[in-house]
Amino acid sequence: MKRIVILLTLIFFSGANLSFALDWAKLHEEADKTDLPKAKAAVQAKPGSAEARYVLGLVYLNEHKDNDAKKAFENILESNPDIFEARWGLAEVLRRQHQLEPSKKIIAEIIKLNSDFSPAYITLAYVLYIQMDFNGSVRTVLKVMNQDKDKVDLSNYVRAYLLYGGAKGAIAHFGGPLSKVINGTAVFSNLKKAEKLQPENAAVKYGLGAFYLLAPGFVGGDLELAEEYLTKSVELDPLFANAYVRLAEVYKAKGDKAKYELYLAKAFEIDPGCELARDVKNNTCKYVCYEGGK
Fold first, then answer.
1. pLDDT tens across 210-224, in order?
2. Distance CA 276, CA 284 (A)
């Protein structure tokens, strides 16, 4: 018995060399309620805490400080290389920096070993959407939507509904009459589910604003509602590049060229590599453009 106690004691005190899993869902929830000064203070109070550094990285992501987020996740991996949540953080930064294939590679490795880690699926779904694999994006977010809600943090659960609705909308747009019926009807209902869960979420306002902008008038398209929702989206998140792009389209549809150019320029100022901004500027419409409410 004495030998067992000694062994357990040695394991406990050598814990720094052992891999361990974070309670990631709880930490994501915490990060959504934490501002940057508080997150930094937590790291200063416990500089060796992977949990505190992970929350700091998430807060940086929430505030669009991607390079700072990268440093926070790298700091975790320096002493705890097996913490896959921090590796996901790096993949999410890569996605935001438009390095899609490197991001996908990291995500694939994470999912292979941690099939219930929903943030990885959300990142992958975004990547697939940008790559115009809309069906793949739908299949990916379904992995999150089909999980037990209690095992997913609220923000990622909401993002799943938003991505599902957005990808279904693209599939409907580019598909035939049957696809428009089958997939089109899934758009608004899933956006409203997201709104019910987080009504003051900037991404939720963006999703609904984009719907009201892009949907034909006979299924709910409404420029006034589009302007209302997208304006609220950028008020909630002044660094949300895609929301400025769709807001620019609203003003273009209303014939206000000055505001169209102003908001599109704002999107490029925030994110020079913004795929949606380039798509709208070049009128390539890979992600669907306003077509006059037809």
1. 999 999 988 899 999
2. 10
